Amino acid sequence: MQPALQHTLYEYLEALPERVIGEVLNGQLHTQPRPTVVHAIAGSVLGAKLLNPFQIGDGGPGGWWIIDEPEIHFVRNLEVVVPDLAGWRRERMPHPPPEDHRIEVVPDWMSGPG
Fold first, then answer.
1. Given this model, what pLDDT does residue 100 score?
2. Where are the beta strands (DSSP E) in 36-100?
3. What's the pLDDT tens digit per position in 76-102?
4. pLDDT digit string (tens) for 4-17?
5. Which of 45, 87, 105, 110 fits 93 for a cystine, CB–CB 3.0-4.6 Å?
6. pLDDT tens figures, 22-69
7. Do residues 103 and 70 make contact, with C-beta atoms less than 8 angstroms apart?
8. 3-state class of 28 per DSSP?
9. Which of 43, 17, 19 lies closest to 33 in space, CA to CA?
10. CA distance 96 to 83
């Protein structure tokens, strides 16, 4: 008799329907519907306001990566969160991961669920 294959929480997270957001917190998978269009517009406006001064350096300090809905993996406690926006100082994360959707560097700033 073969033992039954057990899926990891991350495999369950990856298998969620397109209109559902999932996060792994304290060893449990938490799901919620995708944000409404009004919520997405508010996040987009906030991201646009932050992009020029913080990421590009136009009228602000620059030196940041500002990313919409990044998938952040907290490796130490195996949590996965998807905030509306997150920011990293470039001295801590010189380049975003080029070929992956996961970010394992703890952000310096997060906004919204996550």
1. 84
2. 64-68, 71-74, 79-81, 85-89
3. 888 999 999 999 999 999 999 888 889
4. 566 788 899 999 99
5. 105
6. 999 999 999 999 889 999 899 999 999 999 999 999 999 999 999 999
7. yes
8. strand
9. 19
10. 16
* Phi and psi angles of residue 95, each rounded to the nearest 5 degrees, phi first: -140, 140
| Neighbouring residues of 63: CB distance < 8 A, sequence distance ≥ 6 | 54, 57, 89, 90, 91
Give the integer Cα–Cα distance in Å for 68 and 47: 7
Q: Report the C-alpha gap between 99 and 91 in whole angstroms.
A: 20
The CA-atom distances, in angstroms, between 47 and each of 5, 26, 51, 84 are 41, 28, 6, 9
Residue of 14, 56, 45, 50 lying closest to 31 (CA atoms): 14
CB count in 10 Å sphere of residue 33: 9
Cβ 46 vs Cβ 109: under 8 Å: no
What pairs with residue 71 in β-bridges?
A: 102
Give 3's pLDDT tier (boundaries 50, 70, 90).
Answer: low
The amino acid sitting at 73 is: H
